[in-house]
Structures are given as C-alpha cells and as structure tokens.
Amino acid sequence: MSSLPSRRRALLRLGRGALAAGAVAVGGTVSNVLAQVQQLFTPTRPQTEGPYFKPSSPERWSLLEDGTVGTRLVVSGRAVALDGTPLGGTLLDFWQTDDAGNYDNQGFSMRGHQYTDADGNYMLETVVPGLYPGRTRHIHVKVQLPNGPVLTTQLYFPNEPRNATDGIFDATLVLPIEQTDTGQMATFDFVVATA
Ligand code: FE
Q1: What is the Å distance from ligand 1's center to 153 Cα?
Q2: Which sign, positive or negative, has the C-alpha torsion 7, 77, 42, 156?
C-alpha cells in the first residue's frame, strides 16, 4: 500500500497547523497554500448511484482477474474528514464496467470493496472502464465510515469528449491521470463529513 506523495502530506500537516493556530493568510505563498488546503478539505460531492450497484461485492483491492483486458489503472489516496483527519477503516466499494463498457450484473467482475488502513489510505487496481450509451467514462464508488453515513459518488477521466455532454459529469471528480510505463495512475482523496 503506497502512501500519499510527500508534497500532499506536507500540505496536510501545514494545513492542520495553520488552522489550529488560527493563522490568517497574509502573504501570497500562505494564501496559496491555504487555498489548496481549503480545496483539499472541501467535501467530495455526491453523485447518483445509477442502476448497476450490487451489494456484497468481494473484498479485494485489485479488480484484475485472469483474462482481464484493458488499460491498467491504479487509483490511490486517502479518506479524510473535513479537517484532514485520516479516516481508517473506511469502506470503499467500487464498481465499474469492463474495458468494453459492460457491467457484470450476474457476477462480480469489476466490483470490489476494501477498507482504508489506519492512515486512511486505499489503493484500487483496475482497468480504465469502457463507455456505454448515455454516459461518459466513470467509476462508481460508495464510501462509508465505520457506522457512518454513506457517500455515493463517481470518478471521471480527463480529456473525455463525452464529459461535455454527460449531464451527471462533475469536474471536481475528475481523476488527475498520469501515464505510466504500465498504464495510468491517479491519486484522489475522499473528503467526507463524519457526522
Ligand atoms: Fe455507471
């Protein structure tokens, strides 16, 4: 399980310290940092569940199986509270289409749940989902704190032509995709209210 890039962790520490001290943004650099912190601690927006959720997905961090085809994708990040506190033990339940744009409604292909570690970290290994009629490219997820409320949302991809015409698409939920030697990777933090 990888950790957040050090830059973001430093930002979290700085943000917490500044907020705890009641710091006022006076300089350009401080203003910029606080603006980033504020963005980081903005709640992740909810999205519609859609028609293809199935309960009781297998517990696994990788959705790859023998024969899975498509562009490899690794998404990692943390679940954090509005003040940046890491939320260990948070349930993340992902579901998506396969590379060809099909959901598995009989079995559990491309479906799986996992729990964040004590520092709130998660990692999802999967493939880039395909397209199906009426929607842009997306991954569904439910985020549930231990004994807490459920955030249902979706993650999107940059530079997708259909982002412009999908009425559900939300630009704040776009994964910052980076190309790697083996596929794509992105970090995304889920910021959730704890009460
Ligand atoms: Fe969908």
Answers
A1: 10
A2: positive
From ligand 1's centre to the CA of 142, what distance in Å? 13
Q: Are residues 95 and 151 in the same domain?
A: yes
User: What does each C-alpha distance from 180 to 18, 84, 143, 177, 185 come to in angstroms?
Assistant: 35, 29, 27, 9, 7
Rounded to the nearest angstrom, the distance between the alpha carbon of 159 and the centre of ligand 1 is: 18
Q: Give me ligand 1 centre to Cα 126, in Å.
A: 15
Same domain for 65 and 4: no
Number of domains in the chain: 2
Lowest mean pLDDT among 24-28, 67-71, 191-195: 24-28
Q: Which residues surround ligand 1, an ion (CB under 5 A)?
A: 50
CA of residue 93 to ligand 1 center, whole Å: 14
Residue, of 18 and 100, whose pLDDT is higher: 100
This model's pTM is above 0.85:
no
Q: Are residues 52 and 29 in the same domain?
A: no
Whether residue 17 has pLDDT greater than 60 = no
Is-contact 11 30, C-beta < 8 A?
no
Span from the CA of 88 to the centroid of ligand 1 (angstroms)? 27
